[in-house]
From TrEMBL, chains A, B:
It catalyses: dihydroxyacetone + phosphoenolpyruvate = dihydroxyacetone phosphate + pyruvate. GO terms for molecular function: glycerone kinase activity; phosphoenolpyruvate-glycerone phosphotransferase activity. Keywords: Glycerol metabolism, Kinase, Transferase. This is phosphoenolpyruvate--glycerone phosphotransferase. One of its GO terms (biological process) is glycerol catabolic process. Homodimer. The dihydroxyacetone kinase complex is composed of a homodimer of DhaM, a homodimer of DhaK and the subunit DhaL. GO terms for cellular component: cytosol. It comes from Lentzea guizhouensis. It holds the Pfam family Dak1. Residues 7-328 form the DhaK domain. Gene3D superfamilies: Dihydroxyacetone kinase, domain 1 (3.40.50.10440), Dihydroxyacetone kinase, domain 2 (3.30.1180.20). Pathway: Polyol metabolism; glycerol degradation. Its EC number is 2.7.1.121.
């Protein structure tokens, strides 16, 4: 195992120290339990938008904490759900008197622990479960569909609404609406190694890729020989487009995401193919995001996410955001 | 070779199509010869800041084209110098009547081809060679020191000055001053594969890392067993600090750069250690940049760059920038 770490048991704490050092103006990190909040939390009168999950998917979620996106993130151990007391501490630290919305990726442990935290909280807490991965119905750690790239878009759009003063019910409804309008699928060219495990999460042959991979290396739909970038894009977009479905005349946001170990030159190459694929089908790409935003450690691969846009969602996407990983308009 | 590509021979062109699709508001891509310019080029009365080099180091340089940074970038084939006609086309496309400054990483082919382009140009052209890598004196493709992470900082700071209206002589002097104040060194945990070569650029044993690696996989100072993150940071910062030297009381920008395949969680972890290392020596980190900004395809590893700051350089660093990879203040 080749990693830039000191001790597999302290990777998350050590990385949090670096995040705090790197972004003193944006973030405030608490270590026990581990919670990353906006530096100016709590924001009086504002709904707190909170997410979290296992570490190893950076910049998700800690890199999305800041004005216009998340009020707090709860980083679990690598590929491990955060504990209820982490989530409860995040709710307490960001309580501005307007309640909290928990954005939860659909993994059984996450759903359970966020739910327990909501029950513990003294303030009003609601949660929305994100399940945008069309690859498989049930999975290794999940009943129903997994939450993947759509999470980034939900966090940005709902974060913008909360920043503008939307109340808890409106934020909850918006999160459900975005989740209902977004679909994703990913593929892996290589595996990844969880530090405290020390061996690869799965094995792929030298000429093989996994279509429909989960962000923790959960099995997808099939293993096939590595094809061209055009074949890869079609293998992801065919099921994504068919699922919602996305149709001619639709306006979309296209999110081309890297799994962590894939170079940016390959992501841009895939993005160009995906844009051409959608143009051929009369689907208009109006917004884009390209880069490694929801990753699986050093895994090579990508995921493609489509969100059906209307003027409201496009406007909330464009709204100012000031976080370590997404920043514009400020 | 597992890559998201269609054809090893068209990787750069195909990726440029994706960049153009992803950033229609920021960039204008010309394909023959390949040049990426600001969408609003040429900017009347402004010194054009132009860089370029082999592809495979994304987001460098194309990801730094935009307001407040580069006017144009010339992407060569992967790990191959751009041709003189690419650079000449960039000079012509961005000619606002105030001359052009070429920022050239110190690799023999780059220096030669940018020089030839300067001689071809009808407008006034100067160039500054960047050579911040303290690892080795001469290298596989270089006489003297290599240009690495410091390039990102030179491009940002000189780009800000040009945007504010600095003339060609002032931009040239500033680029030389930043280059004289910046030092870097990198390490690799794994190799990388150039698409049109198809085999890894070098081999590293399962327990080995290369200290002082070049961004094209050029040999560094030594191969040693993979150590802790603290040992890695010291192996890079000891020679960087000793070289300028950086001393107690200095104000610095610390740039923790990923080589492409290293997850962000490891970069943050290393960044935290580097901040503590510098604090112990009385060196004050006033600005930070953490992420994969000058990469070597899918190589795992990192580099650390230190820039000695004063109020002028800090102010130019903070100035608004609007590019695909760096964006703030707008």
């Amino acid at each position: 195992m080749k990693k830039i770490i000191n001790d597999p048991e302290t990777v998350v704490q050590d990385a949090l120290r670096g995040m705090q050092a790197a972004h003193p103006d944006l973030l405030s990190v608490r270590y026990d339990p581990a919670v990353i909040t906006r530096a100016d939390a709590p924001v009086r009168g504002k709904v707190a938008i909170i997410s979290g999950g296992g570490s190893g998917h950076e910049p998700l979620h800690g890199g999305f904490v800041g004005r216009g996106m998340l009020d707090a993130a709860c980083p679990g151990a690598v590929f491990t759900s955060p504990t209820p007391d982490q989530v409860a501490a995040a709710v307490e630290a960001t309580d501005g008197g307007a309640g909290a919305l928990l954005l939860v990726k659909n993994y059984t442990g996450d759903v359970m622990n966020f739910e327990m935290a909501g029950e513990l909280a003294e303030s009003e807490v609601r949660s929305v479960v994100i399940d945008d991965d069309v690859a498989v119905q049930d999975s290794l750690y999940t009943a129903g569909r997994r939450g993947v790239g759509g999470t980034v878009l939900v966090e940005k759009i709902v974060g913008a609404a909360a920043e503008r003063g939307a109340d808890l019910a409106a934020c909850e409804a918006l999160a459900n609406r975005v989740n209902a309008s977004v679909r994703s699928m990913g593929l892996a060219l290589t595996s990844c190694t969880v530090p405290h495990v020390g061996t690869p999460s799965f094995e792929l042959a030298e000429d093989e890729m996994e279509i429909g991979i989960g962000i923790h290396g959960e099995p997808g739909r099939q293993r096939v020989p590595v094809g061209s970038a055009a074949e890869m894009v079609a293998a992801l977009l065919d099921p994504v487009v068919a699922d919602l479905p996305f149709a001619e005349g639709d306006r979309v946001l296209l999110f081309t995401n890297g799994m962590g170990g894939t170079p940016l030159i390959e992501l841009y190459l895939a993005h160009g193919i995906a844009e051409a694929y959608l143009a051929e089908r009369g689907i208009t790409v109006e917004r884009r995001l390209v880069g490694p935003y929801i990753t699986s450690l050093e895994m090579q691969g990508m995921s493609l996410t489509l969100l059906k846009l209307d003027d409201e969602l496009a406007g909330l996407w464009d709204a100012p955001v000031h976080t370590p990983a997404l920043r514009w308009g400020v």
